[in-house]
Amino acid sequence: MALTGDLGAGKTVFARGVARAFRAREPVHSPTFTLINEYHGDRIVFHADLYRVADAREAEELGLEECFEGGGVTLIEWPERAEALLPPRAWRVELRLGATPNERAIRIRAPDAGARA
């Protein structure tokens, strides 16, 4: 899943909820400095934060593509920094701040019907 939104929009909170849904045993933290975290539960959840990554080449060096092949769920914050690496089957989740401090607007787009890779 490609998670987009401004700073503070709730990308990490969304990732925390997905990891909880897969019963991750570890607490979910923002991977801003580690760049990719891995959580174990019913499925492996890879959580990447590309805010500090310059481009797709740098994301590739981190092993981002290996997460896609790891048999789990991959959540990527700031995916626009590695758009060329995202598989066609990636879901898009856009988070926006709402009218009040605790309100968010979330838009989820499924991949195109023909996407397989």
Q: What report would you give on this structure?
A:
By secondary structure, the protein is an alpha/beta fold. It has a single domain, classed as Rossmann fold, CATH 3.40.50. The chain has 3 helices and 6 strands. Strands 2-3-4-1-5-6 form a 6-stranded mixed sheet. It is globular and about 40 Å long. The two termini are 14 Å apart.
User: Radius of gyration, Cα only, in angstroms?
Assistant: 14 Å
Q: Which regions have little confidence, pLDDT < 50, spanning 5+ residues? A: none
Spatial strand arrangement across the major sheet: 2-3-4-1-5-6
So, CATH architecture?
A: 3-Layer(aba) Sandwich
Structural class determined from secondary elements: alpha/beta
Task: Compute the average pLDDT.
Answer: 91
Quote the distance from N terminus to C terminus.
Answer: 14 Å
CATH class: Alpha Beta
How would the blueprint of this fold be written?
Layout: E1 2-4, H1 11-21, E2 36-39, E3 45-49, H2 56-62, H3 64-68, E4 73-77, E5 92-97, E6 104-109
Parallel strand pairs: 1-4, 1-5, 3-4
Antiparallel strand pairs: 2-3, 5-6
Which features characterize this protein?
117 residues; Rossmann fold; alpha/beta
